[in-house]
């Protein structure tokens, strides 16, 4: 323990001397609270180190803090939860495109518009790296600051391309690998919005983000997969996880009364619990009824008339991270959202994953490959299937693998938060060069150049001509 705090002190002392107090603009436009939870610890660490922050967010902190101000954009875009069905690629893309037009309204928000008109300067912009980035990245030019992206997911389409590397599908799984189908459509909307708001027109969606100096991602190689990556992709997976707090009294009593341990159930905050339907809920409760363990369910059951088994406690919200850390909690039944996935790994517990949409499917695949989770397809969520999956995941094999994954996840030179602070200040310190420092030169090359087509052509054309001339000469010679 001593050596860790010593390292932290040295780390802080090394960097604090070099970076003066800076003005930082944070833009996190999506209405998913889990995304903002990823950047909030970084914001507070940067404040601790004397920086000033203005955050454009749907989730301003309740408590006031010196040098932190917010532009509250909540209510501009209603938070639409995902239904438990109908999340195919077409519907997901439709949603992305509808969201785009709503995101554009943020730029018209009186306070945001005033800020952009004022030509106030900042030292850094931190922008959520998500579907909205193509229309928010140009703000950096308006406020004359370098810009870094912060991706709340493990990875996201374009992440590599923006830093100057191709995503190779064969071994670098992508979240929305089919999203390229709707690219032309997407491109049109982005161009229109950027032209109207900034007078900027770029040739592609990737190019709208070309000024990003760096992207932080919610990943760590030992936690998921080791990808080839450029220096500008900084892994800060687990940044949102803070030290556990004691569990509230009523939940603690329920846990302590459980002779055979406790299982947690939650579908997170972006899946609509209403859309689950009575039959699926009954399947779930029927499986729980047959367990000897106790179950704590995070579920809004108001819409349902249900008879709860005695071993089940239903609450509208629970302190998930603190519960997962409890030694009597054995297993998490989860939609495998990003936050839940990381908190489960952090606490070394196995999972029964019921992915519903988006990155949940991707996270589940990775957890299953690591043998720390048993997956159930939502459409096959029957009582027997769930019961069997729970019992499978409760076997020792999963507990051992989960503990091992926890160790691999924790084995790092610096905590995710220290890493994020260091690289954020790195970009501020090296503002003038930052656009080029961490990316590959590929960002400046077009398709022909980066695939060496021009070079190949320079060699191939004389070669082909020579062969042709030889053949022609031979033909003439044979004729004579
Ligand atoms: C607020 O920022 C200023 C520098 O701009 C600094 O001098 C002051 O100590 C900060 N206040 C707090 C409470 O961090
Ligand atoms: C990138 O930065 C340059 C220089 O500040 C600016 O001219 C250009 O418009 C920016 N591009 C985008 C897409 O924001
Ligand atoms: C992507 O497209 C392929 C072929 O069109 C299809 O087989 C696959 O299921 C799609 N993936 C997703 C996630 O929709
Ligand atoms: C960055 O560029 C500005 C303007 O060209 C210059 O005044 C400043 O000294 C440079 N900063 C560093 C650290 O080189």
Write the layout of secondary structure elements.
Elements lengths: L1 H15 L6 E6 L4 H16 L3 E6 L10 E5 L16 H20 L1 H8 L6 E5 L4 H4 L2 H4 L4 E5 L7 H5 L19 H16 L6 H4 L3 E6 L15 E3 L13 H8 L5 E5 L11 H12 L4 E5 L13 E4 L4 H6 L3 E6 L3 H10 L3 E3 L5 H11 L3 E3 L7 H11 L2 H15 L5 H14 L4 H4 L9 H4 L2 H27 L1
Parallel strand pairs: 1-2, 1-4, 2-3, 4-5, 5-6, 6-7, 8-9, 8-11, 9-10, 11-12, 12-13
Helix pairs in contact: 3-8, 11-15
Bound molecules: 2-acetamido-2-deoxy-beta-D-glucopyranose (NAG) (4 copies).
The site of one 2-acetamido-2-deoxy-beta-D-glucopyranose has 5 residues, from loops.
Looking at this protein, list some descriptive labels:
single chain; 480 residues; alpha/beta; 7-stranded parallel beta sheet; 6-stranded parallel beta sheet; 20 helices; 13 strands; globular; binds 2-acetamido-2-deoxy-beta-D-glucopyranose
């Amino acid at each position: 323990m001593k050596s860790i705090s010593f390292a932290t002190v040295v780390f802080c002392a090394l960097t604090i001397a070099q970076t003066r107090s800076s003005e930082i603009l944070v833009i996190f436009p999506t209405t998913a609270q889990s995304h903002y939870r990823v950047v909030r610890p970084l914001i507070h660490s940067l404040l601790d180190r004397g920086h000033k922050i203005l955050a454009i967010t749907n989730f301003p902190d309740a408590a006031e803090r010196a040098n932190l101000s917010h532009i509250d954009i909540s209510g501009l875009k209603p938070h639409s939860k995902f239904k438990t069905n109908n999340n195919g690629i077409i519907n997901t893309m439709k949603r992305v495109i509808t969201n785009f037009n709503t995101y554009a309204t943020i730029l018209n928000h009186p306070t945001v518009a005033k800020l952009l008109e004022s030509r106030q300067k900042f030292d850094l912009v931190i922008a959520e790296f998500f579907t909205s980035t193509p229309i928010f990245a140009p703000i950096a030019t308006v406020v004359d600051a370098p810009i870094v992206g912060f991706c709340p997911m493990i990875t996201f389409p374009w992440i590599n391309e923006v830093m100057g590397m191709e995503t190779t599908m064969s071994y670098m799984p992508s979240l929305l690998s089919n999203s390229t189908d709707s690219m032309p459509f997407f491109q049109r909307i982005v161009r229109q919005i950027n032209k109207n708001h900034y007078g900027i027109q770029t040739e592609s969606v990737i190019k709208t983000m070309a000024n990003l100096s760096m992207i932080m991602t919610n990943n760590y190689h030992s936690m998921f997969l080791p990808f080839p990556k450029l220096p500008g992709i900084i892994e800060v997976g687990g940044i949102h996880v803070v030290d556990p707090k004691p569990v509230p009294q009523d939940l603690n009593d329920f846990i302590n009364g459980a002779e055979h341990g406790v299982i947690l159930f939650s579908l997170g905050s972006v899946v609509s619990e209403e859309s689950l339907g009575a039959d699926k809920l009954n399947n779930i409760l029927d499986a729980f009824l047959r367990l000897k363990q106790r179950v704590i369910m995070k579920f809004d059951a108001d819409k349902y008339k249900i008879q709860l088994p005695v071993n089940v406690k239903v609450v509208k919200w629970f302190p998930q991270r603190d519960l997962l850390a409890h030694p009597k909690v054995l297993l998490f039944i989860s939609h495998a959202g990003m936050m839940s996935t990381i908190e489960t790994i952090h606490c070394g517990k196995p999972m029964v994953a019921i992915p519903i949409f988006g990155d949940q499917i991707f996270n589940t695949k990775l957890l299953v490959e690591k043998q720390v989770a048993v997956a159930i397809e939502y459409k096959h969520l029957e009582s027997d299937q769930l019961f069997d999956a729970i019992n499978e995941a409760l076997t020792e094999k999963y507990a051992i693998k989960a503990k091992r994954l926890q160790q691999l996840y924790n084995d790092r030179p610096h905590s995710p938060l220290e890493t994020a602070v260091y690289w954020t200040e790195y970009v501020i310190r090296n503002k003038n060069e930052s656009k080029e420092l961490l990316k590959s030169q590929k960002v400046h090359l077009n398709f022909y150049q980066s695939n060496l087509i021009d070079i190949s052509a320079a060699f191939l054309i004389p070669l082909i001509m020579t062969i042709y001339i030889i053949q022609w000469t031979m033909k003439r010679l044979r004729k004579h």
